[in-house]
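Reply to dn_fold:

You asked what the input looked like. This is it:
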Amino acid sequence: MQIDWNIYLLIIGMALVTAWSRSFFMILGERIKVADWVIEAIRFAPLAAMVAILAPEIFLPGNAASVAQFDWKLPNIWGGVAALIAFYLTRKMVMTLVVGMTVYTLARFCL
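and this is what came back:
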């Protein structure tokens, strides 16, 4: 087995950049003042990351190459919409999972 050192260097480089960017505010401490709008925008970063991960899984089939292959008969769409509505109405994660997976399963067999 041949060792590709470029892969190891890439992993080490990504780890260093990640560690530096996450510790940036701790290293500088009180010496830098972050604008209030930046702090407000950072609050939405986890939500934006979740949407970026989940939206293609919900709205596109597994082998889709573009948005043009969108299809209303996908069970992912119906399960995702049902889960969204369930969470909006109940604000309970377990109920969201149960409703979403139930609708997804029913849609798989009915559509």
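The chain is about 70% helix and 0% strand.
Hope that clears it up.
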